[in-house]
Design a protein that fits this description.
Layout lengths: L1 E5 L11 E9 L3 E3 L6 E8 L1 E6 L4 E5 L2 E5 L5 E5 L5 E8 L3 H7 L8 E2 L2 H20 L4 H30 L1 H18 L6 H7 L4 H12 L3 H19 L5 H7 L4 H12 L3 H9 L2
Antiparallel strand pairs: 1-2, 2-9, 3-8, 4-7, 4-9, 5-6, 5-8, 7-10
Helix pairs in contact: 2-3, 3-4, 5-6
């Protein structure tokens, strides 16, 4: 167990991230009517407890969950079980708020991590708590990098857990795939790769292709190709002032490739297709 400890930046250069406080121990009830001076990252290692915030929000935090609380946010918290082992760090510095925002880490909402990741976070807190003694000369610099590493790791951990949970939930997986379809519908005219599309929903390329074909019966590349040809056909029928070359560009395809695929799909060239539509 690590008792509560306050830290103070010692170097002449102000670090973008610095440690204000750190600890890991059985947590008793705390009342903070004006909040804490800095951002807090809480890690539950055993038992469970409840956080009550001034806006009426109440959240329960259990083993294997991480919670971020913004500075100066009034709150109370205390154990629900006999033993509630909570690790925590108070973080200050000019980079903390933009980094939390950039990493898309939710605030005041418990984030689940695996047992393996939980132990990694525990080890990180221990390193921070002992950091000053271990690295007296370069303490501020090393701790700033350690905090950055922990925050980015937490963001990656929670995304992995959330995606894994979605995959176990068929409705959640389908929702992710619908997002990828919407993304293709919004960006089909741009140069898209399957890896780019997979990234938008947090899947690897291979996993995305497999899940997409399971749901839609075609792979995402085929779906995108058909979408482009459909949009091309609509432009051919409704935009007579556009040349076939301009339409190919508008749907994100090279001219000769567009003509070849269009003929294979419809049995006639884009120019012939336009003529047939003119007589309807």
């Amino acid at each position: 167990m690590l008792p509560f400890k306050l830290f103070h930046q010692q170097g002449k250069i102000e670090m973008p991230l610095s440690l204000y406080s750190c600890g890991l121990h059985h947590q008793h009830k705390i009342h903070r009517p004006i909040g804490y001076p800095t951002f807090q990252c809480m890690v539950c290692l055993e038992g469970s407890g409840t956080f009550d915030f001034e806006n009426g929000l109440s959240v329960t935090m259990q083993k294997g969950e991480v919670l971020f609380v913004p500075g100066k946010q009034a709150h109370d918290y205390g154990p629900e079980t006999e033993r509630w082992i909570l690790g925590y760090m108070g973080i200050e510095g000019k980079l903390i708020e933009p980094l939390i925002y950039t990493l898309e880490i939710p605030l005041m909402r418990p984030l689940a991590v695996s047992e393996e990741h939980l132990r990694q976070l525990e080890a990180g807190l221990v390193r921070l708590w002992n950091g000053k003694e271990a690295h007296e000369r370069d303490y501020d610099h090393i701790v700033s990098m350690e905090i950055y590493g922990l925050l980015t790791s937490i963001a990656a951990m929670t995304q992995i857990e959330n995606k894994s949970s979605l995959d176990r939930n068929p409705a959640g997986a389908k929702e992710q795939l619908r997002k990828s379809v919407h993304y293709m519908e919004q960006h089909y005219m741009e140069e898209l790769s399957i890896a780019n599309i997979a990234d938008t929903v947090g899947y690897s390329k291979q996993h995305f292709q497999r899940k997409f074909k399971e749901t839609y019966g075609v792979n995402p590349g085929q779906y995108l190709q058909r979408l482009r040809l459909l949009r091309g056909a609509q432009l051919l029928a409704g935009q007579s002032e556009l040349s076939v070359g301009e339409i190919a560009t508008r749907v994100g395809m090279e001219f000769n490739y567009f003509v070849r695929l269009f003929k294979r799909e419809h049995g006639i060239t884009p120019a012939q297709y336009r003529l047939t539509r003119a007589y309807e």
